[in-house]
Amino acid sequence: MSNRKRRLVSSAIVAAAAGAAILGTASAASAGTVSVESCTSVVGNTTYQPGLTTATRTETAVLSATLNGCSNAYNGASPGAGALTANLTGPASTSAVSLKGTFVVNWPAASGFNPSIGSLGVTGPDAQGIYTVSGTITNGAFNGSRVSTSLLGTGVNAGADGSASRPVTTQQFTNTAALQVRRSNW
Questions:
Q1: Measured over all CA atoms, what is the biggest interatomic distance in the chain, rounded to whole angstroms?
Q2: Which H helix or E strand runs over 167?
């Protein structure tokens, strides 16, 4: 084969490889995640047993929230309220929590969706006092999807100061980001 033909064949191979790389990048970008359900309001409280103090210890926590402003990719807005309940355990103090457990979301009745059940983790707070909530739905509506939100503590039970004699047994919160249910766009 002549040098000219080799250069033409090499150029064709390089061009084909470049085209494949561009197509691969476009496919990877479109294969991300999409939101299938969102609730703009997540308001509630977390109760702790035995109660948060300045010392880290194992806590049992129940997170309870009312969900409002829910809408989904299939039917649009879902009037009415939903509910999120999570049973969590793990090391926690007044300055840091790392809780894991299970959750149930009862979507607004108007959505027509069965409850979503799964595993959930709560960590934080960060420097702004925000807790990160994330998990995976393992049963029910949106099975296999990821769920997440962020929560800001807005108050604690009366008289609580985080001491051994006055632990934080209830912490109120509101969301700083919508509760999102996301699934792979494959």
A1: 90
A2: none
Note whether 173 and 156 are within 8 A (CB). Answer: no
Using alpha carbons, select from 66, 50, 67 the residue that is nearest to residue 58.
Answer: 50
Tell me the three state secondary structure of residue 11: helix
Q: Would you kindly state where each structural domain of the chain is located, as residue ranges?
A: 1-31, 35-184
| Confidence class for position 177, pLDDT limits 50, 70, 90 | very high
Say what the pTM is: 0.81
